[in-house]
Amino acid sequence: MGFSLLRSIIRKLISTCISTKREVEESEENDDHLLLPAEIIIDILSRLPVESVLECGRVCKTWRNHLLALNDTNYFANMHLRRHGGLLLQLQQLDDDDQYHNQSNAAAAAAKVGLILCGKRNLYYGDYDNDDDDENNIHDEKFSNYKMKTSFTKINHPLFDTEPADIVGSCNGLICLSVRRRRLLGYNNRDLFYICNPITREYIYLPGPIMDDDDPENLGIGMLCGFGYLQSTNEYKVVTMYYCRNDTQLFLGRVEVYTLGDGNGWRNKGEITYSWGPICFISKGVFANGALHWLDIKDGKIIAFDLADEEFHSFPSPPPCDVPFSGVPRRFPQELCVLGGWLCLVHKREDACIDIWSIKKTKSISNDDDMKEQEYQSWSWSREFSIRTKGRGNSICQPIALAKRGEILMWYNFAYLVAYDPRSTTSEKLGDLGRDLHCCYGRATSHINSFLSLKALGEDAKNFRTS
Questions:
Q1: pLDDT digits (tens, 9 = 90+) for 421-436
Q2: Distance from C-alpha of 464 to C-alpha of 467, rounded to nearest angstrom
Q3: How do 283-284 and 219-230 pair as beta strands?
Q4: Can you give the residue ranges of the F-box domain (predicted)?
Q5: Ranked by mean pLDDT, which of 55-64, 116-125, 169-178, 354-363 comes out on top?
Q6: What is the mean pLDDT of the chain?
Q7: What is the 3-state secondary structure (H, E, C) of 298-350?
Q8: DSSP state of 323
Q9: pLDDT (mean) for 246-268
Q10: Rounded CA gap, 315 and 365, in Å?
Q11: Measured distance CA(243)–CA(223) in Å, rounded
């Protein structure tokens, strides 16, 4: 109730400020006695949604100058993220694990769900906010579409002017995408990574990972990659595992890590021999609990790359899914995702039913690095949802977010969004962007807008225009 009232007041305040913008600008030079201390202004702005902060910056030069002055440090960006469930969800474990998870899930449930949709040639952002508490809402013309579930905004930037891309991940407002460049001869893919923040309009290109192009028999099979945040060092990392095939070794992966802003480029972390199964396209890692996770379906387990020690660890899948899988399916029957702050495994059964399992820590264990494998064993799986899908069993339903009232947002057949209500077992179609997403390139992921600056992280970022 209190949050709804505060949001209504903010809407009305911004609407009034916009309608009187001319008067504010004309009198700004004569109202120095009305100015608040900078630290109070920054504190107030950090409590507002991103969109409201942008509006405040447009109508008041003083507020705008305060925000611009903080661009070089990410001080305001980090403060804003912590108060809106961003950095909180990425924290490593606190001393009290229960406190950590309770806070994580509370923040995830309290915030409206932001979404990034990636089409063949465009990138879109949208919100899902199914707050039915309208008692204190102020319905003026400007905010009449505040709760629209099917409206998405196209993000204009230079990447999609050249070729398609795929989402690697979204973390604290930064979106990482991979651009596949197919060579004229052979099947060796050269991938570039692209990272942007739609709010700050900053972007960077990262070169593709290093590989031996001189070996004519070194045929690329595919890449596993991921994007995550290490809170203890305030570092954002891109991880790749590039798999090649030659006469002597099959599916031998080279691991490389790129840390944003450290100036070291790609760091070689050696090779791995995990039998991930058939790799024919880019597979993204799922970030949760300070690590990136991938499925090893051939051995029935999950592989985690810890961003702190930059080492691989493994732990079993839930009992129905821990059996090694054989064959070459068109669609894998399992995938990983994050819902409400938990790492989840989605099991697509043959009877057109989807089971969603979440893993949670059940007991404390030594934090010694040598105990990392045992630490993963202290987590246990529980089945949270079972969803009966409509139509044929080969329909693709990818869970991407958990809304605050319990709805599961799913990406259906790479084409449109669906909100599934576990209480009523009903679903609602939310958005369809037409032909742009009706192809194999259509992807979706949860996202939180932020003011995080790539330049402040140490990258030589460029800016793109919004028009």
A1: 998 988 888 766 655 5
A2: 9
A3: parallel
A4: 30-79
A5: 169-178
A6: 73
A7: CCCEEEEEECCCCEEEEEECCHHHCCCCCCCCCCCCEEEEEECCEEEEEEECC
A8: S
A9: 81
A10: 15
A11: 6
Q: Phi/psi at 149 (nearest 5 deg)? A: -100, -10
pLDDT for 4-48, tens place per residue? Answer: 655 665 565 555 455 544 444 544 444 554 567 888 888 888 898
Written as six digits, the tokens of 131 are: 């707050």
Q: What is the DSSP string of 145-179?
A: TTT-SS-EEEE--SGGGT--EEEEEEETTEEEEEE
**Run of H or E residues at 302:** strand 301-306
Cα gap 201→464, rounded to integer Å: 6
For the beta sheet containing 283-284, the strands, ordered from the edge strand earlier in sequence to the opposite edge, are 266-272, 252-259, 235-245, 219-230, 283-284
Q: Round to whole Å and give the CA distance between 300 and 315.
A: 9
Taking phi over 0 as left and psi of -120 to 50 as alpha, with beta for the rest, 327 belongs to left
How far is CA 133 from its chain centroid? Answer: 28
Say how far apart CA 211 and CA 232 lie, in whole Å: 31
Stretch (H or E) spanning 115 = strand 113-118
359 close to 380: Cβ distance less than 8 angstroms: yes
d(CA 163, CA 160): 5
d(CA 138, CA 429): 27
Distance of alpha carbon 30 from alpha carbon 65, whole angstroms: 17
Record the tokens describing residue 58, joined without a space.
């447009």
Amino acid at 194: Y
Q: Is 10 helix (H, G, I), strand (E, B) or coil?
A: helix
Residue among 456, 467, 460, 462 nearest 172 (CA): 456
Amino acid sitting at position 24: V
